[in-house]
Structures are given as structure tokens and as C-alpha cells.
Amino acid sequence: MAVESKVNRQATCSAPVNIAVIKYWGKRDEKLILPTNSSLSATLDQADLKTTTSVALSSEFDSDRLWLNGKEESITNPRLQNVLQKIRSLASERAQTDEEKAVLDAHVHIVSVNNFPTAAGLASSASGYACMVYTLAQVYGVTDYELSKIARVGSGSACRSMYGGWVAWNMGTRDDGDDSFAEQTHLADHWPGMKILILVVSDRKKGTSSTSGMGTSVRTSELLQHRITEVVPKRMAAIKEAIEARDFAQFGEITMRDSNQFHAVCLDTYPPIFYMNDTSKAVVQMVTQYNTMKGEVKAAYTFDAGPNAVIYAMEDAMAEIASLTSHFFPSTTPDTFFRGTTTAPPAPSAELLSHFTIAQQPEDSLQYGINTQPGPGPQVLTDEECLLDSSGLPK
Ligand code: DP6
Fold first, then answer.
1. What is the CATH number of domain 8-188+377-385?
2. Across residues 168-191, what is the average pLDDT?
3. S-S: 15 plus which of 130, 193, 230, 295, CB 3.0-4.6 Å?
4. Does this chain's domain 8-188+377-385 share its CATH topology with 194-372?
5. Could you read off the pLDDT of 338-379 as tens digits, one per residue?
6. Where are the domains of the chain?
7. Per-residue pLDDT at 344
8. Domain Mvd1 C-terminal spans what residues (predicted)?
9. Percentage of the chain with pLDDT > 70?
10. Cα of 209 to ligand 1 centre, how many Å?
């Protein structure tokens, strides 16, 4: 009688957050998560924002289990099931040895944590699914596959977190999604001095999720149809050229126009969706007046499906933006407002302020800022960083 093979494998990896400058908004297939337009993002440095995931696979486990940020969650979520099923069917196509076949019958325990507050409305589903797929691929031995296609069925924007630097998600045209994947257009260090500032808005209201918001936009917004056919294809080409040439003025204008159009599509959705609030709008005005003063686009804002602002600027301009932010958005904890720092930026000079007409915002309209920059893609970590103990439960 054949002895049943016992298997025991594990891996721990980290994956980054990404912020789109050409926005993904709309699906042509909701199950496969196929988009109605291509998009492009910068991957953020994992020193500032990342998800870490450990996966253990063992023939001793009774079922698949998942823990997110210290809490056990149901694993029945259809997107999660789609991801697991895709990884397992890849592994099954390749299984040859008894050990490889035994892996297919074993269950997994998945533990995932973010190094940033999930509640802040930052893109945790992108880094979360990217990390899960990357780690599962190590455990199942399928790392040679184009994994962004599997991350995509977890959450569309997750496919872009599978690479570092500047990343395009090509929408593709096939019904099976085989040509809808992410690809790196430029390395993380391609544009020295590029900085990214995330301004977390103090707003605990639960807004419309991207998934349901974009569904309503696809059904009701005529502007979205124009964006899909006329606007995005040209912008994708133009922004790649601007990044290639390190042309900030071009890059910044396209970034702001694309954010503006995405939020215009939200307003054109019926019933309308509002993601930006008064604080977000004050950030837009601050950046606009800064660029007017400079006579050139030196800083660019972008907003996702929530009120938080993300600002792209080169290092020198970003230093001025930081001091203007502390002036126009006063904080009751100025020394720790910018995460990772213990000193507030210098107050802006009277000369600098004379170019601005916006009003100072109420105290603590912004919760905090995160200074970051483009960074690399997912990483395999050592066993010492494993989030599971030897029995396969969270440490
Ligand atoms: C506004 O990737 O969160 O951030 O595919 O339904 O999971 P699902 O949506 P999601 O949408 C992100 C929308 C966006 C723009 C972007 O990141 O491109």
C-alpha cells in the first residue's frame, strides 16, 4: 500500500502599494476583472507602505484559513477563491512527482499584515492581493507564470503591484483575459529625485467602494465612454513618453488631468459619486497656485476613490509643498505630522505665502502625511520574518 505523502512548505514575502497616474475605472468583465481602459502607476517604496504575507501549506491542516491584520477572516470571498483556484490549477498542470501531487490536496494557512493603517483608505487591496499571489506562487512553485494575471482577479489594481517602478496595466482585448497583464515600463530608480507625498484626510465616512462605484459608472456615464475610447489611449502613450524623458511638466499635467477626469466621471455617474471633499479641494488649490507661482507644473496631485491626496513632485519642489502643507493644513501634532520624521518642515516665507489666496483650513483637516518615492516590486523574505509559528498558526 502506498504511503501517503506528507507535505510541508512555507514562504514569506512583501509587496508594495501603487498609486495610479492614469486611472483604472470600469470593467468589461467583472469575474475576470478585465478593465475598460489601460492604466499606469508608480509602485511605492516598501519602507513606507507594504503588505507582508506568510503562507504555510501542510497535509496536516484541515482547511484553508486566512488571518488579516491579526484577525481571522472568512476565506469564502469569491475573489480570494478565484485566486486560490487559479494558483492550484497551475500547480496541478505541472505536478509530476508524488510530492507535487500531494501539494494539491493540502490546505494553506495565510497570514497577512500591513505596515500602515488599513482604515486610512490607502490602497490595501492592491498590496494585499499582490502579496498573497506572490507568496502562494512561491509555495506552489509556479513563479515562472505571468502572476499579474492572477493578482488581477483578486483586485484589478493589484496586478500593478507585482512590479516595481513605473507599471502599465495593458487592458487587453481577449475575452479570457490572457492579454490583460501588468508590465514594468521604467525601473524605480529611472527618475532620480522623484518624490511622492500621501496626505491622509481626516474623514472616517465610508464611501462608495471602487468595485461598486465603477460598476455604476460603466452603466450610466457617457463621459466614461468618451474617456475609454478617446482619452486614455492617447494619455497612456503621452505619459510613458513624459516618464521616459523625465519631463515633469508633461507628466504632472497629464496626471492632474487624469485625476480630474476620473472624478468628473464620478460626478457624471447616475446617481453621482463624490470621493473628494473640501480638504481634497483645498489641496488641489494649493498645488494649482504653487504651479501658477512657478510658471510651470512643478507638483501634481491625484486622488483615488476617497478624499486622500497624493502629490508627485521633484525633491526641491516637494520640500516647498511640505512647508506649504503645514501652513495651510495646520496640525495639532506638527512634529510628527510627516510620518517617519520628528521635526516639522520650516514655515514658508512671507514672500512664498504672498502668492497664495487659499484660506488656512480647520486644524487637523489632514491626519498625517507619508513621504515616499518609487520603489521595487514584491520581495521574498527570510524564514525569520515568517508570521506563522511551527504549528501553522499566527505568531
Ligand atoms: C480609483 O483595483 O480597488 O484606485 O478591481 O474592483 O478591486 P477592483 O477595484 P480597485 O480599483 C482601483 C481604482 C482606483 C484607480 C486605480 O488604482 O487605477
1. 3.30.230.10
2. 98
3. 130
4. no
5. 987 778 899 999 999 999 999 999 999 999 999 999 999 999
6. 8-188+377-385, 194-372
7. 87
8. 196-381
9. 97
10. 9
**Of ligand 1's atoms, which has the minimum distance to the CA of residue 22?**
18
Cα(11)–Cα(161) distance, integer angstroms: 19
Tell whether the model's pLDDT for residue 48 goes beyond 50: yes
* Type of residue at 9: R
Q: Which residues contact 102 (CB under 8 A, 6 or more apart)?
A: 4, 5, 6, 7, 59
Instruction: Please write the tens of the pLDDT for every residue from 232-287.
Output: 999 999 999 999 999 999 999 999 999 999 999 999 999 999 999 999 999 999 99
Torsion of CA 306, 312, 315, 316, to 10 degrees: -100
Element (H, E) at 73: strand 71-73
List, in order, residues 6 or more apart from 106 with CB less than 8 Å away. 7, 57, 58, 59, 61
Any idea which fold 194-372 has? Alpha-Beta Plaits (3.30.70)
Query: DSSP string covering 264-287, please?
Result: HHHHHSSS------HHHHHHHHHH
The residue contributing the CA closest to ligand 1 atom 7 is 155
How would you list the strands of the sheet with 107-114, edge to edge? 71-73, 65-68, 107-114, 50-58, 8-16, 379-380
Tell me, what DSSP letter sits at residue 137?
H
Residue 370's pLDDT is 94
Residue the block writes with cell 494575471: 149
Distance (angstroms) between ligand 1 centre and the Cα of 26 equals: 9
- Report yes or no: 164 and 184 within 8 Å, Cβ to Cβ: yes
How does pLDDT run across 97-129, given as a tens digit for each residue?
998 999 999 999 999 999 987 766 676 799 999
Q: Which residues pair with 56 in a beta bridge?
A: 10, 109
CB 11 within 8 A of CB 54: yes
pLDDT at 4 (0 to 100): 54
Interatomic CA distance for residues 355 and 359, integer angstroms: 12
Identify how many contiguous H helices and E strands the chain contains and give both numbers: 11, 17
Pairing of strands 107-114, 65-68: parallel
217 lines ligand 1 (CB under 6 A): no
Identify whether the C-beta of residue 36 lies closer than 8 Å to the C-beta of residue 69: no
Which amino acid residue places its CA nearest to atom 14 of ligand 1?
304
| Cα–Cα nearest to 323, from 142, 197, 236, 151 | 197
